[in-house]
Protein backbone atom coordinates (compact mmCIF):
# COMPACT_ATOMS: atom_id res chain seq x y z
CA UNK A 1 0.00 0.00 0.00
CA UNK A 2 1.50 3.34 -0.99
CA UNK A 3 0.70 6.61 0.77
CA UNK A 4 -0.36 8.67 -2.22
CA UNK A 5 -2.34 11.68 -0.96
CA UNK A 6 -4.49 11.47 -4.10
CA UNK A 7 -6.29 8.10 -4.22
CA UNK A 8 -6.71 6.44 -7.61
CA UNK A 9 -10.08 6.96 -9.26
CA UNK A 10 -11.23 5.52 -12.57
CA UNK A 11 -12.77 7.46 -15.43
CA UNK A 12 -15.98 5.49 -14.84
CA UNK A 13 -16.07 6.54 -11.16
CA UNK A 14 -15.55 10.17 -12.17
CA UNK A 15 -18.31 10.08 -14.82
CA UNK A 16 -20.72 8.34 -12.42
CA UNK A 17 -20.01 11.01 -9.79
CA UNK A 18 -20.85 13.86 -12.17
CA UNK A 19 -23.90 11.99 -13.46
CA UNK A 20 -25.13 11.71 -9.87
CA UNK A 21 -24.31 15.37 -9.11
CA UNK A 22 -26.10 16.46 -12.28
CA UNK A 23 -29.15 14.42 -11.22
CA UNK A 24 -29.33 15.40 -7.53
CA UNK A 25 -27.33 18.64 -7.21
CA UNK A 26 -29.75 21.44 -6.37
CA UNK A 27 -28.95 25.03 -5.46
CA UNK A 28 -27.32 26.59 -8.53
CA UNK A 29 -23.63 27.29 -9.20
CA UNK A 30 -22.63 28.33 -5.68
CA UNK A 31 -24.03 25.18 -4.11
CA UNK A 32 -22.71 22.91 -6.90
CA UNK A 33 -19.20 24.33 -6.59
CA UNK A 34 -19.46 23.72 -2.82
CA UNK A 35 -20.61 20.11 -3.34
CA UNK A 36 -17.64 19.40 -5.65
CA UNK A 37 -15.25 20.70 -2.99
CA UNK A 38 -16.94 18.72 -0.23
CA UNK A 39 -17.13 15.47 -2.22
CA UNK A 40 -13.99 15.45 -4.39
CA UNK A 41 -11.52 17.37 -2.20
CA UNK A 42 -12.62 16.80 1.41
CA UNK A 43 -14.27 13.36 1.34
CA UNK A 44 -12.99 11.30 -1.61
CA UNK A 45 -9.69 13.23 -1.86
CA UNK A 46 -9.57 12.60 -5.62
CA UNK A 47 -8.75 16.26 -6.28
CA UNK A 48 -6.13 18.31 -4.41
CA UNK A 49 -6.95 21.69 -2.89
CA UNK A 50 -4.55 23.35 -5.37
CA UNK A 51 -6.15 21.69 -8.41
CA UNK A 52 -9.59 22.70 -7.17
CA UNK A 53 -8.53 26.33 -6.64
CA UNK A 54 -6.90 26.46 -10.10
CA UNK A 55 -10.09 25.07 -11.62
CA UNK A 56 -12.27 27.57 -9.77
CA UNK A 57 -10.04 30.48 -10.84
CA UNK A 58 -10.01 29.37 -14.48
CA UNK A 59 -13.79 28.85 -14.41
CA UNK A 60 -14.23 32.38 -13.10
CA UNK A 61 -11.85 33.90 -15.67
CA UNK A 62 -13.44 32.17 -18.64
CA UNK A 63 -16.98 32.97 -19.83
CA UNK A 64 -19.86 30.58 -19.27
CA UNK A 65 -21.54 28.72 -16.38
CA UNK A 66 -19.23 28.39 -13.39
CA UNK A 67 -20.22 24.93 -12.13
CA UNK A 68 -20.08 23.30 -15.58
CA UNK A 69 -16.64 24.78 -16.23
CA UNK A 70 -15.34 23.53 -12.89
CA UNK A 71 -16.72 20.04 -13.64
CA UNK A 72 -14.96 20.08 -17.02
CA UNK A 73 -11.68 21.20 -15.44
CA UNK A 74 -11.84 18.59 -12.65
CA UNK A 75 -12.45 15.95 -15.33
CA UNK A 76 -9.35 17.25 -17.13
CA UNK A 77 -7.07 16.99 -14.06
CA UNK A 78 -6.37 13.25 -14.42
CA UNK A 79 -8.04 12.15 -17.66
CA UNK A 80 -7.35 15.21 -19.86
CA UNK A 81 -9.64 15.82 -22.88
CA UNK A 82 -11.57 12.55 -22.47
CA UNK A 83 -12.20 13.20 -18.77
CA UNK A 84 -13.15 16.83 -19.40
CA UNK A 85 -15.62 15.91 -22.16
CA UNK A 86 -17.28 13.02 -20.32
CA UNK A 87 -17.43 14.87 -16.98
CA UNK A 88 -19.06 17.87 -18.68
CA UNK A 89 -21.60 15.73 -20.55
CA UNK A 90 -22.44 13.65 -17.46
CA UNK A 91 -22.97 16.79 -15.41
CA UNK A 92 -25.23 18.58 -17.90
CA UNK A 93 -27.20 15.68 -19.44
CA UNK A 94 -29.58 14.79 -16.53
CA UNK A 95 -30.89 18.34 -16.12
CA UNK A 96 -31.14 18.75 -19.90
CA UNK A 97 -33.42 15.69 -20.11
CA UNK A 98 -35.51 17.02 -17.21
CA UNK A 99 -36.03 20.50 -18.69
CA UNK A 100 -36.97 19.03 -22.09
CA UNK A 101 -39.58 16.78 -20.42
CA UNK A 102 -40.87 19.79 -18.45
CA UNK A 103 -40.97 21.77 -21.70
CA UNK A 104 -43.13 19.06 -23.29
CA UNK A 105 -45.49 19.09 -20.27
CA UNK A 106 -45.55 22.89 -20.30
CA UNK A 107 -46.63 23.08 -23.94
CA UNK A 108 -49.07 20.17 -23.61
CA UNK A 109 -50.88 21.50 -20.53
CA UNK A 110 -50.69 25.17 -21.50
CA UNK A 111 -48.47 26.35 -18.67
CA UNK A 112 -47.49 25.27 -15.15
CA UNK A 113 -50.10 26.67 -12.73
CA UNK A 114 -48.55 24.82 -9.78
CA UNK A 115 -45.08 26.20 -10.55
CA UNK A 116 -45.38 29.41 -8.52
CA UNK A 117 -46.36 27.51 -5.37
CA UNK A 118 -43.53 25.00 -5.74
CA UNK A 119 -41.04 27.73 -6.67
CA UNK A 120 -42.13 29.79 -3.64
CA UNK A 121 -40.93 27.09 -1.25
CA UNK A 122 -37.97 25.81 -3.25
CA UNK A 123 -36.42 29.19 -4.04
CA UNK A 124 -36.39 30.10 -0.33
CA UNK A 125 -34.76 26.77 0.54
CA UNK A 126 -32.25 27.16 -2.31
CA UNK A 127 -31.14 30.50 -0.79
CA UNK A 128 -30.39 28.65 2.44
CA UNK A 129 -28.40 25.97 0.58
CA UNK A 130 -26.45 28.58 -1.39
CA UNK A 131 -25.74 30.71 1.69
CA UNK A 132 -24.40 27.71 3.64
CA UNK A 133 -22.24 26.56 0.68
CA UNK A 134 -20.91 30.10 0.26
CA UNK A 135 -20.01 30.26 3.97
CA UNK A 136 -18.07 26.97 3.80
CA UNK A 137 -16.26 28.00 0.61
CA UNK A 138 -15.28 31.38 2.10
CA UNK A 139 -14.05 29.82 5.31
CA UNK A 140 -11.95 27.26 3.46
CA UNK A 141 -10.41 29.43 0.74
CA UNK A 142 -9.87 32.83 2.38
CA UNK A 143 -9.11 31.97 5.99
CA UNK A 144 -7.57 34.92 7.88
CA UNK A 145 -5.72 36.60 5.02
CA UNK A 146 -6.56 40.32 5.26
CA UNK A 147 -5.75 41.13 1.61
CA UNK A 148 -7.92 38.27 0.36
CA UNK A 149 -10.76 39.48 2.61
CA UNK A 150 -10.44 42.97 1.09
CA UNK A 151 -10.69 41.48 -2.43
CA UNK A 152 -13.61 39.29 -1.30
CA UNK A 153 -15.51 42.25 0.18
CA UNK A 154 -14.89 44.44 -2.90
CA UNK A 155 -16.10 41.69 -5.26
CA UNK A 156 -19.21 41.07 -3.14
CA UNK A 157 -20.04 44.79 -3.05
CA UNK A 158 -19.47 45.20 -6.80
CA UNK A 159 -21.72 42.23 -7.56
CA UNK A 160 -24.50 43.53 -5.30
CA UNK A 161 -24.33 47.05 -6.78
CA UNK A 162 -24.05 46.09 -10.49
CA UNK A 163 -26.05 42.81 -10.24
CA UNK A 164 -23.53 41.19 -12.56
CA UNK A 165 -19.93 39.93 -12.49
CA UNK A 166 -17.03 41.81 -14.07
CA UNK A 167 -14.19 39.85 -15.72
CA UNK A 168 -11.86 42.85 -15.50
CA UNK A 169 -12.34 43.02 -11.74
CA UNK A 170 -11.33 39.33 -11.40
CA UNK A 171 -8.22 39.87 -13.53
CA UNK A 172 -7.43 43.06 -11.59
CA UNK A 173 -7.83 41.21 -8.27
CA UNK A 174 -5.40 38.53 -9.48
CA UNK A 175 -2.82 41.12 -10.56
CA UNK A 176 -3.30 43.13 -7.33
CA UNK A 177 -2.66 40.10 -5.10
CA UNK A 178 0.25 38.94 -7.27
CA UNK A 179 1.92 42.36 -6.89
CA UNK A 180 1.49 42.13 -3.11
CA UNK A 181 2.51 38.51 -2.59
CA UNK A 182 4.94 37.61 -5.41
CA UNK A 183 6.11 40.73 -7.28
CA UNK A 184 8.80 39.15 -9.59
CA UNK A 185 8.49 39.08 -13.38
CA UNK A 186 5.14 37.98 -14.68
CA UNK A 187 5.06 35.50 -17.55
CA UNK A 188 2.58 35.26 -20.39
CA UNK A 189 0.10 32.85 -18.81
CA UNK A 190 -2.23 35.70 -17.90
CA UNK A 191 -2.21 36.87 -21.52
CA UNK A 192 -3.77 33.58 -22.54
CA UNK A 193 -6.60 34.05 -20.04
CA UNK A 194 -7.28 37.55 -21.40
CA UNK A 195 -6.75 36.89 -25.10
CA UNK A 196 -8.84 33.75 -25.54
CA UNK A 197 -12.18 35.49 -24.94
CA UNK A 198 -11.13 38.34 -27.25
CA UNK A 199 -10.42 35.94 -30.12
CA UNK A 200 -13.81 34.33 -29.65
CA UNK A 201 -15.59 37.70 -29.70
CA UNK A 202 -14.30 38.27 -33.23
CA UNK A 203 -15.85 35.00 -34.41
CA UNK A 204 -19.19 35.93 -32.88
CA UNK A 205 -19.49 39.23 -34.73
CA UNK A 206 -20.37 37.32 -37.91
CA UNK A 207 -24.01 37.71 -38.90
CA UNK A 208 -25.40 34.39 -40.12
CA UNK A 209 -28.62 33.56 -41.94
CA UNK A 210 -32.16 34.22 -40.79
CA UNK A 211 -33.08 30.57 -40.24
CA UNK A 212 -34.49 30.07 -36.72
CA UNK A 213 -32.06 27.36 -35.56
CA UNK A 214 -29.11 29.46 -36.75
CA UNK A 215 -30.51 32.42 -34.83
CA UNK A 216 -30.91 30.23 -31.74
CA UNK A 217 -27.38 28.87 -32.13
CA UNK A 218 -25.83 32.29 -32.62
CA UNK A 219 -27.72 33.90 -29.75
CA UNK A 220 -26.93 31.14 -27.24
CA UNK A 221 -23.26 30.94 -28.29
CA UNK A 222 -23.09 34.65 -27.44
CA UNK A 223 -24.86 33.96 -24.12
CA UNK A 224 -22.29 31.28 -23.31
CA UNK A 225 -19.35 33.38 -24.44
CA UNK A 226 -20.26 36.75 -22.99
CA UNK A 227 -21.59 35.86 -19.55
CA UNK A 228 -19.18 35.27 -16.68
CA UNK A 229 -19.63 33.45 -13.40
CA UNK A 230 -23.03 32.05 -12.60
CA UNK A 231 -26.54 31.31 -13.77
CA UNK A 232 -27.53 34.59 -12.12
CA UNK A 233 -25.48 36.54 -14.67
CA UNK A 234 -27.00 34.87 -17.73
CA UNK A 235 -30.65 35.65 -16.83
CA UNK A 236 -30.60 39.38 -17.78
CA UNK A 237 -28.75 38.54 -21.02
CA UNK A 238 -31.32 35.87 -21.94
CA UNK A 239 -34.19 38.19 -21.08
CA UNK A 240 -32.82 40.90 -23.37
CA UNK A 241 -32.62 38.54 -26.34
CA UNK A 242 -35.39 35.99 -25.83
CA UNK A 243 -38.13 38.43 -24.71
CA UNK A 244 -37.07 41.90 -25.90
CA UNK A 245 -35.06 41.41 -29.10
CA UNK A 246 -36.51 38.27 -30.73
CA UNK A 247 -39.85 38.03 -28.83
CA UNK A 248 -39.54 34.23 -28.82
CA UNK A 249 -41.21 34.10 -25.37
CA UNK A 250 -43.47 36.44 -23.41
CA UNK A 251 -42.66 37.67 -19.89
CA UNK A 252 -44.57 34.90 -18.10
CA UNK A 253 -43.02 32.14 -20.22
CA UNK A 254 -39.57 33.52 -19.48
CA UNK A 255 -40.24 33.64 -15.73
CA UNK A 256 -41.50 30.05 -15.89
CA UNK A 257 -38.30 29.07 -17.73
CA UNK A 258 -36.17 30.54 -14.92
CA UNK A 259 -38.34 28.78 -12.33
CA UNK A 260 -37.86 25.45 -14.14
CA UNK A 261 -34.09 25.95 -13.97
CA UNK A 262 -34.30 26.53 -10.22
CA UNK A 263 -36.40 23.46 -9.43
CA UNK A 264 -34.26 21.09 -11.51
CA UNK A 265 -30.83 19.89 -10.36
CA UNK A 266 -27.60 20.66 -12.20
CA UNK A 267 -26.50 24.01 -13.66
CA UNK A 268 -29.04 26.86 -13.56
CA UNK A 269 -27.99 27.76 -17.11
CA UNK A 270 -29.79 24.62 -18.33
CA UNK A 271 -32.87 26.86 -18.55
CA UNK A 272 -31.59 27.43 -22.11
CA UNK A 273 -32.79 23.91 -22.95
CA UNK A 274 -36.31 24.74 -21.77
CA UNK A 275 -36.29 28.05 -23.69
CA UNK A 276 -34.96 26.33 -26.81
CA UNK A 277 -37.71 23.70 -26.57
CA UNK A 278 -40.46 26.32 -26.32
CA UNK A 279 -39.02 28.17 -29.34
CA UNK A 280 -38.28 25.27 -31.71
CA UNK A 281 -39.03 21.90 -30.10
CA UNK A 282 -36.33 19.32 -29.36
CA UNK A 283 -33.94 20.60 -32.08
CA UNK A 284 -34.20 24.07 -30.51
CA UNK A 285 -33.46 22.63 -27.03
CA UNK A 286 -30.44 20.67 -28.28
CA UNK A 287 -29.02 23.61 -30.28
CA UNK A 288 -29.52 26.08 -27.41
CA UNK A 289 -27.82 23.79 -24.88
CA UNK A 290 -24.93 22.89 -27.21
CA UNK A 291 -24.35 26.53 -28.18
CA UNK A 292 -24.36 27.70 -24.54
CA UNK A 293 -21.93 25.08 -23.24
CA UNK A 294 -19.56 24.97 -26.25
CA UNK A 295 -17.69 28.21 -25.41
CA UNK A 296 -17.27 27.24 -21.75
CA UNK A 297 -15.91 23.82 -22.81
CA UNK A 298 -13.36 25.37 -25.18
CA UNK A 299 -12.38 28.11 -22.75
CA UNK A 300 -11.72 25.48 -20.08
CA UNK A 301 -9.75 22.81 -21.99
CA UNK A 302 -7.62 25.22 -24.08
CA UNK A 303 -5.96 27.09 -21.16
CA UNK A 304 -6.03 24.02 -18.84
CA UNK A 305 -2.55 22.70 -19.81
CA UNK A 306 -1.05 26.10 -18.99
CA UNK A 307 -2.77 26.17 -15.63
CA UNK A 308 -1.49 22.66 -14.94
CA UNK A 309 2.05 23.47 -16.09
CA UNK A 310 2.55 26.88 -14.51
CA UNK A 311 0.06 26.68 -11.64
CA UNK A 312 2.77 26.05 -9.00
CA UNK A 313 4.75 29.17 -9.99
CA UNK A 314 4.57 31.64 -7.03
CA UNK A 315 3.41 34.49 -9.29
CA UNK A 316 0.69 32.33 -10.90
CA UNK A 317 -0.36 30.95 -7.50
CA UNK A 318 -0.73 34.48 -6.13
CA UNK A 319 -2.72 35.51 -9.21
CA UNK A 320 -4.98 32.46 -8.83
CA UNK A 321 -5.52 33.16 -5.11
CA UNK A 322 -6.53 36.75 -5.89
CA UNK A 323 -8.97 35.65 -8.60
CA UNK A 324 -10.37 32.93 -6.31
CA UNK A 325 -11.02 35.48 -3.54
CA UNK A 326 -12.81 37.72 -6.05
CA UNK A 327 -14.81 34.75 -7.38
CA UNK A 328 -15.97 33.75 -3.91
CA UNK A 329 -16.81 37.38 -3.12
CA UNK A 330 -18.94 37.57 -6.28
CA UNK A 331 -20.68 34.35 -5.25
CA UNK A 332 -21.46 35.84 -1.82
CA UNK A 333 -22.82 38.94 -3.56
CA UNK A 334 -25.01 36.73 -5.74
CA UNK A 335 -26.45 35.14 -2.57
CA UNK A 336 -27.56 38.60 -1.39
CA UNK A 337 -29.17 39.45 -4.77
CA UNK A 338 -30.98 36.11 -5.00
CA UNK A 339 -32.07 36.44 -1.38
CA UNK A 340 -33.66 39.84 -2.06
CA UNK A 341 -35.71 38.27 -4.88
CA UNK A 342 -36.67 35.02 -3.15
CA UNK A 343 -37.09 35.89 0.55
CA UNK A 344 -40.20 38.01 0.12
CA UNK A 345 -42.12 37.38 3.38
CA UNK A 346 -41.95 35.72 6.81
CA UNK A 347 -42.57 32.09 5.60
CA UNK A 348 -39.78 32.27 2.97
CA UNK A 349 -37.33 33.71 5.53
CA UNK A 350 -38.24 30.89 7.95
CA UNK A 351 -37.78 28.22 5.22
CA UNK A 352 -34.32 29.62 4.35
CA UNK A 353 -33.30 29.84 8.03
CA UNK A 354 -34.45 26.26 8.76
CA UNK A 355 -32.52 25.06 5.69
CA UNK A 356 -29.28 26.65 6.94
CA UNK A 357 -29.85 25.29 10.45
CA UNK A 358 -30.57 21.78 9.14
CA UNK A 359 -27.41 21.74 6.96
CA UNK A 360 -25.32 23.06 9.84
CA UNK A 361 -26.62 20.60 12.44
CA UNK A 362 -27.21 17.45 10.33
CA UNK A 363 -23.91 16.82 8.55
CA UNK A 364 -25.05 14.04 6.19
CA UNK A 365 -28.37 15.57 5.22
CA UNK A 366 -28.89 15.37 1.43
CA UNK A 367 -30.05 18.52 -0.34
CA UNK A 368 -32.75 16.83 -2.52
CA UNK A 369 -34.67 15.92 0.67
CA UNK A 370 -34.61 19.56 1.77
CA UNK A 371 -35.79 20.67 -1.69
CA UNK A 372 -38.66 18.15 -1.63
CA UNK A 373 -39.83 19.26 1.83
CA UNK A 374 -39.60 22.92 0.74
CA UNK A 375 -41.66 22.21 -2.40
CA UNK A 376 -44.43 20.53 -0.37
CA UNK A 377 -44.32 23.39 2.17
CA UNK A 378 -44.69 25.92 -0.65
CA UNK A 379 -47.72 24.08 -2.04
CA UNK A 380 -49.34 23.92 1.41
CA UNK A 381 -48.75 27.61 2.11
CA UNK A 382 -49.99 28.74 -1.30
CA UNK A 383 -53.07 26.53 -1.04
CA UNK A 384 -53.91 28.28 2.25
CA UNK A 385 -53.57 25.15 4.35
CA UNK A 386 -51.59 27.14 6.94
CA UNK A 387 -54.02 30.09 7.03
Strand order of the largest sheet: 1-2
Beta fraction: under 5%
Average of pLDDT:
81
The oligomerization state is: single chain
Percent of residues in helices: over 70%
Total DSSP E strands? 2
SS-based class: mainly alpha
Number of helices: 16
Question: What are the low-pLDDT stretches, counting only 5+ consecutive residues below 50?
Answer: 186-210
User: How many domains comprise the coordinates?
Assistant: 1
Distance between the termini: 62 Å
Global morphology: globular
Which sheet architecture does the biggest sheet show? Answer: 2 strands, parallel
What is the C-alpha radius of gyration, as a whole number of Å? 20 Å
H/E element string? HHHEHHHHHHEHHHHHHH
What would you say this structure looks like, in words?
The longest helix has 44 residues, at 66-109. Helix 9 packs antiparallel against helix 10. This protein has one domain (11-382). The protein is globular and about 60 Å long. It is 79% helix and 1% strand. Mean pLDDT is 81; it is low at 186-210. The protein has 387 residues and is mainly alpha-helical. Strands 1-2 form a two-stranded parallel ribbon.
Short description:
The chain has helices at 11-24, 28-43, 49-61, 66-109, 115-142, 146-162, 167-181, 189-204, 212-226, 231-245, 251-263, 271-301, 304-310, 314-342, 346-361, 367-382; strands at 64-65, 228-229. By secondary structure, it is mainly alpha-helical. The protein has a two-stranded parallel sheet.
Amino acid sequence: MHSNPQPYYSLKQLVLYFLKLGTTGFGGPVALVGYMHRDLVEQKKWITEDDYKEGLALAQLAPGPLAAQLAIYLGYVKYRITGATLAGLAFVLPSFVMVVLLGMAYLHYGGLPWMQAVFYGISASVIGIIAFSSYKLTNKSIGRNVWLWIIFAAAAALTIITKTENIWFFIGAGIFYWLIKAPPKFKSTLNTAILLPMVFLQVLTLDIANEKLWKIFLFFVKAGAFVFGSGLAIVPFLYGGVVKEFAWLNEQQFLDAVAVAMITPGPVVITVGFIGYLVAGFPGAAVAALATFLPCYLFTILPAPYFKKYGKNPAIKAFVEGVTAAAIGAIAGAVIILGQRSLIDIPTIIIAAITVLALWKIKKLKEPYIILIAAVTGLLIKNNLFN
